[in-house]
């Protein structure tokens, strides 16, 4: 852990102070109020999705990138599936164009189905 070089003074209600003291009493012997306050601030900062550098912001931006990659992957997979389905000895460039058009047309439906499955598997909050 990096050295603590910045000091801050805070005010709190007596109720907050009492609750903090209760939490400290339930922690290992070397845990201080300052340790718990730092942990609370760290959790708060990490869970802000609007704060660049926070874990929540990183998770959100990573999820956005994964969603875009999944969409592109689904499209290309659709193209391959349609191409395989149209393979015949008399295949032609028109069939490839038809496969790409069909993949573009049906890609949104497949993505919607994938999203529905993902939502069904997502834990309830």
Write a concise keyword list for the protein shown above.
125 residues, 2 domains, mainly alpha, 69% helix
What's the quick description here?
By secondary structure, the chain is an all-alpha fold. Helix content is about 70%, strand content about 0%. It has two domains: about 15-45, no CATH class; about 60-120, no CATH class.
Q: What does this entry look like structurally?
A:
This protein has 125 residues and is mainly alpha-helical. It is built from 4 helices and no strands. α3 crosses α4. The protein is rod-shaped and about 80 Å long. The protein has 2 domains: 33 residues, no CATH class; 62 residues, no CATH class.
Low-confidence stretches: none
Percent of residues in β-strands: under 5%
Distance between the termini: 32 Å
Which sheet architecture does the biggest sheet show?
none
Helical amount: 55-70%
Structural class by SSE content: mainly alpha
Give Rg in angstroms: 27 Å
H/E topology pattern: HHHH
What is the 3D shape?
Answer: rod-shaped
Mean pLDDT: 80
Please report the number of helical segments.
4
Number of strands: 0
How many domains? The number is 2
Q: What does the secondary structure layout of this molecule look like, with pairings?
A:
Blueprint: H1 14-25, H2 33-46, H3 55-85, H4 93-121
